[in-house]
Amino acid sequence: xxxxxxxxxxxxxxxxxxxxxxxVSGVGAILPAMGGALHASAADLSLISGIYVLALVIFNVVAxxxxxxxxxxxxxxxxxxLFLIMxxxxxxxxxxxxxxxxxxxxxxxxxxxxxTSVTLLLTLAPRAMQGRFMGILTAATYVGIALGPLVGGxxxxxxxxxxxxxxxxxxxxxxxxxxxxxxxxxxxxxxSQLDYPGIAIMAAAxxxxxxGASSIGRSQWATPLLCAGAAGLVLFGLVECRMKNxxxxxxxxxxxxxxxxxxxxxxxxFGATNGSLYYFMFYLQQLRFLSPFQAGAFVALQSVTQSxxxxxxxxxxxxxxxxxxxxxxxxxxxxxxxxxxxxxxxTPLLYVALCQCVxxxxxxxxxxxxxxxxxxxxxxxxxxxxxxxxxTLRTMGMLCGxxxxxxxxxxxxxxxxxxxxxxxxxxxxxxxxxxxxxSFNILGLVLVALRILxxxxxxxxxxxxxxxxxxxxxxxxxxxxPAPSGEPGSGTQDPxxxxxxxx
Length: 503
Prior knowledge:
By secondary structure, the protein is mainly alpha-helical. The chain is built from 17 helices and no strands. The protein is globular and about 60 Å long. The model is unreliable at 461-465 and 467-503 (pLDDT under 50).
């Protein structure tokens, strides 16, 4: 693949990720109109987002096994096709049950696209250009998040909510055709089996956690559900240690400290930034009396800043490596969140905008470089698994942030809603959580610093075992089975792609 072909492929890949993220945030803007048309309650509408997040958590890691079994090309094209088909069917949804079912399937397709995008980037792009292309991929994702509420709200207002699912179909079809023509990894199949028991236990555990998190402060079952979900994750870990082909190889992860540090850094960062987002929306609308559109515009500054600076973060990654850039991002995120902890009823809105921009700078410097560092911390045969784990830990962080916010608001406000009458209590709870979230980013900064130190010690070669002994995998994996040709970690690469890497 020549340079122009590589760029067109990466742009098509970025377009696919833009559509996936646009549909995530855009649906939030049409929920009121959808609820009125389908006679749905607020609880019914909240499940639309919860079910989508549940699908992302499950299929981010399942996609890694699918890549091993069916290959990158099938998983990516199949996942994006499923996403587009669900867009068309959601436009015709007759009731809420069909919406829930289709959003779960759409989330599964989106997860396959997100996980496979990173492995395709590593397979197709030379190492010296991976940071730059990761920056473009990250920028496209957050442009979609920023435009989703604004464009989605406009489409719902002018044409009706169903048109949101139709308007991007032609562009999505074009992107699918480009990727179909450009992806040259072979259509192979592997005899390896999917870990059905592990997938079932994981799905049940995350379902309990999602329902429990959304029930905090509203149902007496919230705590039992959360405890059952946590117990399910423990059971999942125990079962995975005994499986021959686990969906999450616990022993492999435990043998790679840099991978663990990167995953937990992603967990704490996304939990903190998404948790703070809830407070910004309540603060701006309920205490400062901004309209939903105005509040959304303020919050969108975060995504706009991130999308503008993500390509620069990619260039810095190619020059200095991903870990130093990610560490700077965590510092900016922590600073922006701690600045936000000082918000009051009289805080100038310009200061609120500044906080959003500082957090956006941090996310631009952290998201793409940290993901690249995670997938580089393992052998190329494991990049799909590492990519899926990174996406899953980010989503789990978002869920954890929701749990913390819900628990804090229940403690400070009880059953009361957010209003100027309870502003003092709301601001006290907000301050408590934002200081906590800022501390999370400092913890993430420490984790990345430890990863940088590990890399530095490996570079010095002073007796440090940088590549863990993986002999413990001998009982679980067939060593005689070669990696699929053209896949990450394969010993046989496409000759044209090899020439491009050499160039």
